[in-house]
């Protein structure tokens, strides 16, 4: 089944060039099926690139998904026009009375800023609180995972001595975790962050469970008893995303380290090696299937009867 997105979204042409089936709103309206309603809170500055990356992964599921992009009203985007956002994105005020099967909260380049000092932190907290009663399952990515763990469970983040950038091997801690169903014993995930969460803090919370770790990059994925998923890396990254970030930081005079385990022989003049795409696809499919589709009620107004969201 395809993803359903707003008509004329620029990401569509890029996805169709990859032979990915994208259904427009008119065609979807004539199908007698209830699609999964998925909201994507896109906090990344590279909006269009992130749209393509996440939609590519969601499109590989046999489930039809109805996508709603969300923007932060309390933040002015510097890398894309407000006209674009007003055309393809909704504000929280527009959708707060609705129910959604799933919500994705992306990463954001604000890790070195205290949570409370991020200009849209108050609005983000409102959305995360709303998600407890209006969304069946939320998938948090990178800084979005750190923000969610901090807001919902008080898990702090810690600065790293140097940026965690590269492709790192992980392994599953829980054999029967649906999120990792079909995964190999070892799998790779991209990371690009200046801060970390620590397993020792999570182990003290009985409502949180670490399901994947790396010997180098640390905690990889955490799930909660409220159907929340927290992934500390960037499974959605394209082949060249880390290369772009490395070149950007080099031009800014930041003297970044070469992303580890990424370029052939760790030589930034050579091509990157993609070794995470299959597991990235599988994780998004598993989240859609086992955390959303298999559990969410057909009538979204019945969400609160299907799961206990008490805090």
What report would you give on this structure?
The chain is α/β, with parallel strands linked by helices and 311 residues long. It contains 11 helices and 12 strands. It has helices at 11-17, 25-28, 47-58, 82-88, 92-95, 121-134, 143-153, 199-203, 241-251, 277-293, 303-306, and strands at 3-4, 22-23, 36-41, 65-70, 89-90, 100-105, 135-141, 158-172, 186-196, 208-214, 218-224, 228-231. Strands 1, 2, 3, 4, 5, 6, 7, 8, 9, 10, 11 and 12 form a 12-stranded mixed β-sheet that branches. Strand 10 and strand 11 form a beta hairpin. Helix 1 (11-17) crosses helix 3. It is globular and about 50 Å long. The model has no long low-confidence stretch (mean pLDDT 91).
Write down the overall geometry: globular
Give the count of helical stretches.
11
First and last CA, distance: 35 Å
Query: Which oligomerization state do the chains in this entry correspond to?
Result: single chain
Question: If you compute it from the alpha carbons, what radius of gyration comes out, rounded to the nearest whole angstrom?
Answer: 19 Å
Helix content: 25-40%
Largest sheet: 12 strands, mixed
Secondary-structure element order, N to C: EHEHEHEHEHEHEHEEHEEEHHH
Beta content? 15-25%
Report the count of strand segments.
Answer: 12
Derived structural class: alpha/beta
Mean pLDDT: 91
Low-confidence stretches: none
């Amino acid at each position: 089944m395809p993803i359903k997105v707003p008509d004329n979204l620029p990401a569509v042409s890029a996805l169709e060039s990859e032979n990915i089936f994208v259904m427009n709103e008119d065609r979807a309206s004539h199908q007698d099926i209830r699609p999964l309603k998925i909201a994507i809170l896109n906090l990344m500055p590279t909006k269009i690139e992130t749209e393509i990356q996440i939609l590519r992964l969601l499109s590989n599921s046999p489930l039809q998904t109805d996508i709603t992009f969300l923007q932060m009203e309390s933040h002015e985007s510097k890398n894309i026009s407000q006209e674009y956002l007003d055309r393809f994105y909704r504000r929280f005020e527009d959708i707060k009375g609705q129910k959604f099967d799933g919500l994705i909260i992306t990463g954001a380049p604000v890790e070195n800023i205290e949570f409370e000092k991020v200009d849209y932190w108050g609005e983000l907290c409102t959305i995360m609180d709303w998600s407890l009663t209006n969304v069946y399952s939320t998938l948090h990515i990178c800084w979005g995972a750190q923000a969610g763990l901090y807001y919902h469970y008080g898990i702090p983040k810690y600065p790293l001595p140097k940026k965690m950038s590269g492709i790192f091997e992980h392994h599953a801690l829980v054999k029967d975790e649906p999120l990792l169903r079909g995964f190999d014993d070892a799998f790779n995930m991209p990371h690009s962050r200046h801060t970390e969460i620590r397993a020792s803090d999570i182990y003290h919370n009985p409502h949180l469970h670490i399901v994947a770790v790396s010997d180098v990059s640390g905690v990889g994925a955490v799930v909660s008893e409220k159907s929340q998923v927290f992934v500390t890396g960037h499974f959605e990254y394209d082949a060249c995303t880390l290369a772009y970030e490395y070149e950007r930081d080099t031009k800014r005079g930041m003297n970044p380290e070469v992303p580890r385990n990424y370029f052939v022989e760790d030589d930034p003049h050579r091509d990157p090696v993609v070794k995470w795409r299959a597991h990235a696809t599988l994780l998004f499919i598993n989240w859609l299937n086992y955390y959303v589709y298999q559990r969410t009620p057909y009538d979204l107004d019945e969400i609160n009867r299907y799961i206990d969201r008490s805090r």
